[in-house]
């Protein structure tokens, strides 16, 4: 049997259950359903009297709608879930003039509730996957994080529970990807991601040039988002929860489009200039570097053998660095409007002088990353799951983030949890490279690009949409690779020629 790449349709045909309605587990008794409905009707008037109650009712409606879609039409439900996770920040801000502001918003619990219920259903029905090395590592890792919820060093059980929303929930999207992640659905998810990014970039550029909406200004004043300021100029965040999530989603779309272009889809280049301008004016240097590195890596792996990847990558990296330096020097010579001059100066000075502490924060970030890893050995049992999340500061914990998820895991879970997470990362990359070598499809290349781009950011749980996309893709990758290997190892019927 030869090793020629099989078409995506063959993969989809061998995995038809991913696009069908999952088998029913019986559901809730009708009496309990009636009781819940009656309680909702009785309690609704009281809930409408408070901002939390009003937002809670909206969260319940969204939860119900997306949950039903995931049950009856996973293809639509997964896309709807991704869109909701992307716009949740904007929705929360737009609701301020209507229902007021609250620091504890039930809307942020919709995603965790869906992920948690899906995982518990797999657990209760004994269908939790354990047929691959990655699946087994995932179970060990989730179990280890659950234990770290109880770690007293983080400042209390509340910090640990809140930390679970940042770290455990993203991991659970892996199981959704294992269940529904066919090649066809992944292609749809990537298309939706690009669509979200294009709309977000237009919105973000509007914020850059014309300012924020009144509800967004009110949110900034109430939440104290000082990191949005660059030299007195406020950077864009579009409809996302933060400017960081905004920039990473734009970069994800660029990498997905670049992967499509490398697989002979020239139309994919059209949106890239718009997205690139929006990313540059957002003024996050790390995103720019990571995007260039991911694009270089994707071009390098186009070589037919792995031995050719290194020279191809070295050549592309050299040309990219030269092109970036020349372009940034030319940009520095241009004049810009008051709305963008500080953002451009911040970007160019940092990228052209990465070792200058006055222009770049690379040294500070490196120290924080190293400190997080070292902390994992100083505190072998870790400081607790929530110690490196926003929950630590919100609930009077004593921890702080360390810039990368790898160092965060060492600090939060100790060196055992840190090495366990490293084993997951290595396994994922090995699987992604092998799957790309087997099928050489646009979907497999896009997955590899996403993983390279977001290295160090896989478990940034505060970025709801990016965390979902990464771990859903990882789950789908694990399933697709397993099916592909199983298919290639299955002997052909007697007399049939491959």
Could you describe the 3D structure shown?
The protein has 498 residues and is mainly α. It has one domain. Strands 1-2 form a two-stranded antiparallel ribbon. A hairpin with a 2-residue loop joins strand 1 and strand 2. Helix 9 crosses helix 12 and helix 18 packs antiparallel against helix 19. It is globular and about 65 Å long.
- What's the number of helices? 20
Cα gyration radius (Å):
23 Å
- List the helices and strands in order: HHHHHHHHHHEEHHHHHHHHHH
pLDDT below 50 for ≥5 consecutive residues: which ranges? 1-28
What number of structural domains do the residues give?
A: 1
**SS-based class:** mainly alpha
> What can be said about the biggest beta sheet?
2 strands, antiparallel
Regarding quaternary structure, what we see is single chain
Strand content: under 5%
Count the beta strands: 2
Helical residue percent?
55-70%
Give the termini separation.
Answer: 5 Å
Principal-axes geometry comes out as globular
How are the strands of the biggest sheet laid out side by side?
1-2
Task: Tell me, rounded to a whole number, the average pLDDT.
Answer: 83
């Amino acid at each position: 049997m030869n090793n020629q790449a099989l078409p995506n349709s063959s993969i989809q045909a061998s995995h038809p259950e991913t696009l069908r309605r999952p088998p029913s587990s019986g559901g809730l008794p009708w009496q309990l359903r009636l009781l819940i409905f009656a309680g909702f009707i009785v309690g609704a008037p009281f809930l409408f009297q408070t901002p939390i109650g009003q937002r809670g009712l909206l969260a319940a409606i969204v939860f119900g709608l997306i949950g039903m879609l995931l049950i009856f039409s996973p293809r639509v439900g997964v896309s709807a879930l991704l869109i909701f996770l992307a716009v949740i920040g904007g929705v929360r801000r737009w609701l301020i003039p209507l229902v007021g502001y609250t620091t504890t918003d039930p809307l942020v619990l919709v995603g965790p509730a869906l992920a948690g219920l899906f995982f518990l259903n797999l657990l209760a029905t004994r269908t939790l996957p354990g047929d691959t090395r990655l699946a087994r590592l995932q179970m060990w890792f989730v179990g280890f994080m659950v234990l770290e919820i109880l770690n007293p060093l983080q400042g209390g059980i509340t910090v640990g529970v809140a930390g679970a929303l940042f770290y455990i929930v993203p991991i659970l999207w892996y199981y959704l990807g294992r269940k529904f992640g066919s090649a066809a659905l992944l292609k749809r998810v990537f298309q939706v991601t690009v669509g979200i990014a294009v709309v977000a970039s237009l919105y973000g550029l509007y914020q850059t040039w014309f300012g924020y909406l009144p509800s967004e200004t009110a949110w900034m004043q109430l939440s104290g988002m000082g990191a949005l300021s660059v030299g007195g100029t406020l950077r864009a965040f579009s409809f996302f929860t933060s400017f960081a999530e905004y920039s990473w989603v734009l970069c994800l779309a660029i990498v997905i489009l670049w992967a499509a272009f490398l697989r002979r889809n020239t139309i994919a280049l059209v949106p890239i200039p718009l997205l690139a301008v929006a990313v540059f004016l957002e003024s996050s240097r790390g995103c720019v570097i990571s995007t260039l590195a991911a694009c270089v890596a994707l071009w390098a792996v186009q070589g037919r053998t792995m031995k050719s990847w290194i020279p191809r990558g070295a050549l592309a990296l050299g040309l990219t660095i030269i092109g970036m330096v020349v372009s940034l020097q030319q940009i520095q010579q241009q004049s810009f409007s008051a709305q963008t001059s500080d953002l451009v100066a911040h970007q160019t000075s940092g990228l052209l002088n990465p070792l200058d502490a006055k222009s770049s924060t690379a040294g500070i970030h490196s120290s924080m990353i190293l400190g997080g890893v070292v902390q994992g050995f100083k505190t072998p049992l870790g400081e607790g799951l929530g110690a490196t999340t926003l929950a630590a500061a919100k609930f009077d914990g004593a921890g702080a983030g360390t810039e990368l998820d790898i160092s965060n895991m060492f600090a939060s879970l100790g060196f055992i949890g840190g090495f366990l997470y490293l084993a997951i990362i290595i396994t994922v990359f090995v699987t992604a490279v092998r799957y790309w070598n087997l099928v050489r499809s646009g979907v497999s290349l896009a997955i590899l690009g996403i993983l390279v781009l977001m290295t160090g950011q896989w478990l940034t749980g505060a970025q709801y949409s990016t965390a979902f996309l990464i771990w859903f893709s990882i789950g789908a990758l694990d399933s697709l690779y397993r099916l592909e290997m199983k298919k290639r190892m299955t002997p052909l019927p007697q007399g049939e020629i491959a």
